[in-house]
């Protein structure tokens, strides 16, 4: 199954009222686990590499190329996506490595500056056939639209999409990043209002904090791309801790990292069904 463009996953999912699972890659094992889980579920999947992960590795090239190769070898459709890029240089590098989409994050800028910066990235990416996700900045203040308590205004969201030409929009509906407890309360009425107002697919960031029953409900209400990172990190870390507790003599990282990779694959398969990416 060849590497596919993100729009080839998100577009059909939106039209069918289904979800598209997008999971963050930190190490090569994450990419392998996510694809393994998607294959087990028989569902397409999006591999995401964030600017924070790039910073951890010191550069994009190595982890980016490895992730693209994992995607190319998959037995289900897999897209590779740059997450939360704050500068056009990293965007251009990702496009050059074969990423089919980028999330350009100008949410810390005021509205007018966000529109100007995002529109420029969109124009450049569209000229190269690359899909662009973005988010509003003004609604959430300096912490962006996913600050606790932030909400996206439907009319402003529609105007922003028209002004920038983005292909998808991340919206603030009650979640925030890096939640390790499932305590987020998603405003489903707002989701429906945004779906009615905004002509492009909607994206939920911070989905690790959403109660699992609500993951299905947010997709049914109109969100399409569902981003999950922290939840997988919890599963990955717990599996390593458990393995080392049970096998204190182990020093070969392949043993305990393999256990983590298997745990993440199981979670991805399960979560893809919860977001209705798989039957």
How would you portray this structure in words?
By secondary structure, the protein is of the alpha/beta class. The protein has 11 helices and 8 strands. It has helices spanning 6-16, 28-41, 51-57, 61-72, 88-97, 111-127, 154-164, 188-197, 212-221, 230-246, 253-274, and strands at 20-24, 45-50, 78-85, 101-104, 131-135, 168-170, 202-204, 225-228. Strands 1-2-3-4-5-6-7-8 form an 8-stranded parallel barrel, surrounded by 8 helices. Helix 6 (111-127) links the parallel strand 4 and strand 5 (131-135). Helix 2 (28-41) packs across helix 11 and helix 7 runs parallel beside helix 8. The longest helix is centred in the C-terminal third of the chain and has 22 residues, at 253-274. Mean pLDDT is 89; it is low at 138-142.
Topology of helices and strands:
Layout: H1 6-16, E1 20-24, H2 28-41, E2 45-50, H3 51-57, H4 61-72, E3 78-85, H5 88-97, E4 101-104, H6 111-127, E5 131-135, H7 154-164, E6 168-170, H8 188-197, E7 202-204, H9 212-221, E8 225-228, H10 230-246, H11 253-274
Parallel strand pairs: 1-2, 1-8, 2-3, 3-4, 4-5, 5-6, 6-7, 7-8
Portion in beta strands: 5-15%
Please state the average pLDDT score: 89
Secondary structural class: alpha/beta
| Major sheet details | 8 strands, parallel, barrel
């Amino acid at each position: 199954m060849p590497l596919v463009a993100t729009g080839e996953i998100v577009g059909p999912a939106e039209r069918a009222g289904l979800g598209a699972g997008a999971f963050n890659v930190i190490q090569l094992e994450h990419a392998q686990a996510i694809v393994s889980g998607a294959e087990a579920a028989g569902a397409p999947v999006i591999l995401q590499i964030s600017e924070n992960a790039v910073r951890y590795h010191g550069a994009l090239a190595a982890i980016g190329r490895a992730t693209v190769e994992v995607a190319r070898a998959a037995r289900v459709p897999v897209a590779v996506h740059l997450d939360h890029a704050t500068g056009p240089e990293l965007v251009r590098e990702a496009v050059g490595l074969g990423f089919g989409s980028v999330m350009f994050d100008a949410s810390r800028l005021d509205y007018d500056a966000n529109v100007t910066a995002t529109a420029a990235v969109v124009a450049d990416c569209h000229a190269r056939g690359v899909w662009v996700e973005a988010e509003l900045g003004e609604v959430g203040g300096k912490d962006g639209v996913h600050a606790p308590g932030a909400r996206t205004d439907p009319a402003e969201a529609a105007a922003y999409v028209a002004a920038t030409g983005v292909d998808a929009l991340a919206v603030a509906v009650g979640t925030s990043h890096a939640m390790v407890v499932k305590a987020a309360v998603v405003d489903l009425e707002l989701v429906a209002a945004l779906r009615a107002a905004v002509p492009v697919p909607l994206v939920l960031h911070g989905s690790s904090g959403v109660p699992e029953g609500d993951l299905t409900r947010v997709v049914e209400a109109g969100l399409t791309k569902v981003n999950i990172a922290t939840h997988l990190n919890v599963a990955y870390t717990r599996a390593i801790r458990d393995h080392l507790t049970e096998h204190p003599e182990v020093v070969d990282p392949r043993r305990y990292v393999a256990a983590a990779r298997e745990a993440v694959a199981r979670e991805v398969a399960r979560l893809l069904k919860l977001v209705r990416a798989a039957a």
